[in-house]
Amino acid sequence: MSSPQDPEDEQGGGDPPGDLRSVLVTSVLNLEPLDEDLFRGRHYWVPSTQRLFGGQIVGQALVAAAKSVTEDVHVHSLHCYFVRTGDPKVPVLYQVERTRTGESFSVRFVKAVQHGRPIFICQASFQKAQPSPMQHQFSMPAVPPPEELLSHEDFIDQCLRDPKLQEYQVGLNRIAAQEVPIEIKLVNPPTLCTLKEMEPKQMFWVRARGYIGEGDMKMHCCVAAYISDYAFLGTAMLPHHWQYKVGFMVSLDHSMWFHAPFRADHWMLYECESPWAGGSRGLVHGRLWRQDGVLAVSCAQEGVIRVNPWKSKIKL
Length: 316
Known about the structure:
Elements: H1 23-28, E1 32-35, E2 38-41, H2 54-66, E3 73-82, E4 92-101, E5 105-114, E6 117-128, H3 152-160, H4 166-173, E7 182-186, E8 201-208, H5 217-228, E9 244-258, E10 268-278, E11 281-290, E12 295-309
Antiparallel strand pairs: 1-2, 2-4, 3-6, 3-9, 4-5, 5-6, 7-8, 8-10, 9-12, 10-11, 11-12
Helix pairs in contact: 2-5
Pfam families: 4HBT_3 (PF13622), Acyl_CoA_thio (PF02551)
Subunit structure: Homodimer.
Protein name: Acyl-coenzyme A thioesterase 8
């Protein structure tokens, strides 16, 4: 383990102030207030599954919760359950309950509702900044910087030119649509030789498209909540891609812990691993690292993964 550096803003990454504001701020996470502690959220990107993207619901719920606390407190953890499939044809209502407001910690309960029924519930805890002499963190993995790596779109083009990698590319296409407001760069993209021997681990650099700026740290946390669900559960499928195709995959729950300030429009390393899969479920853990080696966010998720064998196995 190593001691974390001072949580200063990262240098590099992100876009200059003259560029367009990130659509994550202007649209996806821009909730419409309807009443006190009641908000309406709309959809920007709907996956090919025609179910609502879980990261959108988590991010919007955190926006709603953050609007009910004072400026001097920031989210340190959230714990969520997806209880029903979301309908992409109608907006989502977010109801906030002020469970507790204390001197150091405040807790908010958020319920996301469609058609009069909850589709998602979330508890978020906020804390006033409190210095502590007790500090430690793991060391960030040594990986190439994002500037040296292929963009996700370029990697998919590469897969398309190799018929034996096209089955792997099918899953990638779902998360590489141009309208997705996130950029990613895979650290160790699979090759033909490694596809059959992949571990349930992956790392990729990720950032929000567009410019967010220094702004409110609460907004960067909400953007990270959106990002954190992106390709996360798919980590559990990596050792099995060559043998099975996904028939059904949805998140059941999602948890996050926020450790240090960060910029969600700067490149961060997303380190993902799946310690277990079974019973038609998969468990994944994740860590978001700033480029300067500071551990910014930790994540965990369990989801349903139902698979079907390929009609003809991928020949490697």
